[in-house]
Design a protein that fits this description.
By secondary structure, the chain is an all-alpha fold. The chain has helices at 8-16, 20-30, 58-70, 75-92, 119-128, 134-150, 179-190, 197-224, 236-245, 262-265. The protein has a domain at 58-246. The structure holds heme C (HEC) (2 copies). Keywords: Iron, Iron-sulfur, Membrane, Metal-binding, Signal, Transmembrane, Transmembrane helix.
């Protein structure tokens, strides 16, 4: 991370991890700033992307993410984020423990139950963004999201600590980072209602899985610094379709995003016309 003079507080944040020093530094970080002059904007407290990242133990954090999912029903975004930043707060104090964690509750059900991005994924990406700007963060997000698209989830099993449903759950590959596709496909394939406890349990476990993967990525990033590279290749469809639809200067350069194109543009049964001759 870039801790130059402009990021003076970044250095202070580093000191704060000493433990005892944290109490001294925290009020400084939280101190109110003078209002900016008219037409000017205030500088971000702590510097932009200015917090100091710490390695975490994924074995310890994944169950906390699961617990966070169930905590007052704050769900996936909150659980994944608390499993990372909350755990830094528990270990290192300020500034991590000063984050308004409930902000992440908005990610429940793909943002207020809209089924857009999987909230656990957003929670992790937001955690990355406390420490790394776009150029450094994107390979980390790519790694996490492509892992999510291609991995049979959920993996985590809380055993007797299960809150919604005890026992094994079926797993499935979503091919998509979207809550809607990830949940609906799993429910359809296993004939489980989307509003059931099993489905909630599935998402709670998946929150632990995302937290674990995000911590593995973060730890690798801390070790490798600017050289960090993910291991999951770009999806074949994105590379192929992108040759025309995502290539500057091409007459068909209309497509935005690097989600796998397959679930929506393969003409499969689920994406055929359901508005006629449908039960
Ligand atoms: C060789 C270049 C090329 C590749 C590769 C390509 N497309 Fe296209 N695509 C086009 C062009 C050109 C059009 C516009 C055709 C037209 O005007 O009817 C188009 C149109 C489309 C459209 C809108 C119109 C329609 O027919 O539905 C979609 C959606 C689309 N492509 C998706 C994809 C996907 C998904 C892939 C990968 C599986 C892909 N394309 C691969 C060139 C390409
Ligand atoms: C989550 C589903 C989803 C994914 C994933 C997705 N698309 Fe689309 N895409 C759509 C929908 C829905 C539209 C709007 C179609 C319409 O116009 O009715 C669209 C529009 C497009 C269009 C404009 C053509 C049109 O008919 O509007 C292109 C080109 C396109 N997509 C290409 C891609 C490519 C390439 C990828 C992969 C990199 C991709 N899409 C991934 C659902 C998706």
């Amino acid at each position: 991370m870039d801790c130059n003079r402009r990021h003076l507080l970044c250095g202070l944040g580093g000191l704060a991890v000493g433990g005892a020093v944290a109490g001294l530094v925290a009020p400084a970080l939280a101190a109110p700033q003078a209002a900016p002059a008219p037409g000017e904007r205030f500088a971000q407290v702590g510097g932009e992307f200015g917090w100091q990242p710490h390695k975490l133990n994924a074995d310890e954090c994944a169950p906390v993410a699961y617990e966070g999912y169930w905590h007052k029903g704050y769900a996936c975004g909150y659980g994944a984020f608390y499993g990372i930043i909350g755990m830094m707060g528990e270990k290192f104090g300020a500034p991590y423990n000063q984050f308004p964690f409930t902000m992440l509750e908005a990610n429940k059900g793909g943002i207020s139950d809209w089924g857009t991005i999987c909230g656990a994924l957003y929670g992790a990406a937001a955690a990355f963004a406390l420490f790394w700007g776009r150029r450094e963060r994107t390979p980390m997000v790519n790694e996490l999201f492509r892992w999510y698209e291609t991995t049979a989830l959920p993996i985590y099993n809380p055993g007797d600590a299960a809150t919604g449903f005890k026992g094994a759950l079926p797993t499935g590959v979503s091919d998509s980072v979207l809550c809607h596709i990830s949940v609906s496909k799993w429910c359809y394939e296993n004939k489980i209602e989307a509003s059931s406890k099993q489905r909630s349990e599935r998402c709670g476990r998946l929150t632990a899985d995302v937290c674990r993967k995000a911590i593995e990525i973060m730890n690798a990033k801390i070790e490798q610094g600017k050289n960090y590279k993910g291991t999951f290749p770009i999806r074949k469809a994105v590379a192929g379709c992108g040759e025309c639809h995502m290539t500057k200067g091409n007459e068909a350069n209309w497509s935005k995003g690097v989600m796998d194109c397959t679930p929506c543009h393969s003409g499969g049964k689920a994406v055929a016309d359901k508005f006629k001759d449908h039960p």
